[in-house]
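queue> pop job 88
queue> type: inverse folding (structure -> sequence)
queue> payload:
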């Protein structure tokens, strides 16, 4: 089962349908995209000598090259390693080395950062700028190679998500997982016609990149903004040009879209669906969005280990709940997707009664097979066939899941997962930091802000500028705390464990 067969089929079925667009311009039909994919796959295997199972990394802003590289890698049976373009060079370095990537494709603006990340290692990674003539020369290779036949459990997508220890873990998402997610999209999220489009304004390395496959299955158009990221003015303009447009957006992006729409009052005629997830959407925010944008929203709940496909709150349910004033339903994350089984369990994995809080566990065809080269973490997270999400929630009488907290203290800011332990370890490097605890603080703009509570060493006077610089030297800018609170002590239980719940409560006072 090679998921690239869906692209091959699309090129045969509808060769002249628009496949890839940049801004308002169609640049490739499905026939042209398929030809480029085959040529690049031939270069990867013929020139570089890569073989099925080898890894191909991408550190790129959103651009049409992302799509063709990914399908070329799959065509050749290779594993794609998408890397968040906002990461720090030291984080690039870890992912590239841990994954053993043979080649890394980058957009020009990230070339220097990625080069700095790999220069010091013996295991050199070939770096290729997708905006260069060298990249275009890769497409001169013949089209003779056939689509590589793969087992369904062959890894397609090696997605790195930070763990609570701060050490990133590579989630092994298989070809079967990807197909199951695409099928579930049609069953639970939305329908797609060949005249429709998807606008990749959110990072393609994350959720938006999981939704290209169902659109390929229906010969739909994939639109990449010229800016390479979410520019709200550009998005509104593109929604006036294209029709049948779907977008995946984080709640913070929806808020920005709504503010812009309130000021500009665009027609939004081209907008079909906004799927949102990646963080909490406050009830008042979705109500405001429905007023300004209309009945266009679908909510999904997932995580890297079960991408985009744990539960879904459909358009019809959201719209009915809004009309009925049912805020509890709007606050939920919906019902389980068709391809998974979801439970709320206790510490022994026993299912809990309706209304009782416990950890959310999921199993099914979309759940990843484990972590790359990390059997201990895999064993800790996958138990008796169930993926333990670390999220705390409950089911109501109608089978809708509501999330209450995250047992692993993960912070979600702007739709991006941030793990406190990683930041705590960096701040602890400062010689005047005695103790530190990092938590999330509710933010209407970002969902959550990162804040740090710090106990200075005796007589220590710490500059927040020094702490900021320490973070910038080691981790991505977006993980840096928004505020630092200097305290005499941190709340702890009888076993000496820091009570982060108490810290979060203190922030709400």
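queue> result:
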């Amino acid at each position: 089962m090679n998921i690239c067969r869906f692209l091959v089929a699309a090129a045969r079925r509808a060769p002249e349908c628009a496949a890839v667009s940049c801004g308002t311009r169609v640049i490739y039909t499905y026939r042209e995209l398929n030809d480029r994919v085959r040529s690049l796959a031939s270069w990867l295997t013929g020139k570089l000598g890569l073989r099925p199972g080898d890894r191909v990394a991408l550190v790129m802003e959103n651009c049409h090259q992302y799509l063709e590289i990914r399908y070329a890698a799959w065509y050749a049976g290779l594993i794609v390693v998408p890397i968040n373009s906002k990461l720090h060079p030291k984080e690039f370095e870890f992912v590239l080395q841990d994954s053993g990537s043979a080649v890394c494709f980058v957009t020009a603006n990230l070339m220097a950062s990625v080069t700095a990340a790999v220069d010091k290692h013996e295991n050199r990674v070939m770096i290729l700028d997708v905006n260069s003539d060298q990249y275009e020369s890769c497409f001169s290779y013949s089209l003779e190679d056939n689509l590589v036949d793969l087992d369904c459990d062959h890894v397609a997508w090696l997605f790195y998500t930070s763990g609570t220890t701060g050490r990133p873990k590579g989630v092994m998402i298989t070809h079967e997982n990807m197909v199951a997610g695409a099928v579930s999209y049609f069953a639970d999220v939305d329908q797609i016609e060949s005249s429709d489009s998807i606008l990749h304004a959110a990072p393609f390395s994350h959720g938006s990149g999981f939704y290209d496959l169902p659109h390929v299955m229906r010969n739909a158009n994939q639109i990449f903004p010229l800016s390479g990221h979410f520019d709200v003015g550009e998005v509104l303009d593109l929604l006036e040009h294209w029709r049948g447009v779907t977008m995946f957006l984080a709640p913070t992006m929806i808020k920005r879209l709504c503010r812009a729409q309130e000021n500009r009052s665009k027609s939004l005629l081209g907008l079909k669906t906004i799927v949102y997830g990646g963080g909490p959407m406050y009830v008042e925010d979705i109500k405001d969005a429905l007023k300004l944008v209309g009945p266009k929203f679908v909510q999904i709940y997932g995580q890297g280990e079960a991408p985009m496909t744990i539960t879904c709150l459909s358009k019809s349910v959201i719209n009915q709940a809004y009309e009925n004033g049912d805020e509890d339903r709007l606050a939920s994350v919906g019902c389980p997707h068709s391809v998974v089984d979801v439970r709320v369990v206790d510490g022994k994995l026993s299912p809990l009664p309706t209304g009782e809080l416990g950890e959310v566990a999921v199993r099914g065809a979309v759940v990843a097979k484990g972590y790359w080269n990390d059997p201990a973490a895999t064993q800790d997270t996958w138990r008796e066939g169930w993926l333990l999400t670390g999220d705390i929630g409950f089911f109501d009488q109608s089978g809708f899941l509501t999330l209450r907290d995250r047992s692993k203290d993960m912070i979600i800011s702007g739709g991006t997962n941030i793990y406190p332990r990683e930041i705590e370890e960096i701040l602890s490097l400062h010689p005047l930091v005695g103790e530190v605890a990092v938590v999330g603080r509710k933010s209407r703009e970002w969902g959550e802000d990162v804040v740090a509570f710090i106990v200075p060493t005796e007589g220590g006077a710490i500059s927040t500028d020094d702490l900021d610089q320490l973070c910038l030297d080691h981790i991505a800018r977006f993980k840096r705390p928004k505020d630092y609170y200097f305290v005499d002590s941190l709340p702890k239980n009888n076993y000496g464990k820091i009570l982060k719940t108490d810290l979060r409560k203190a922030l709400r006072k």
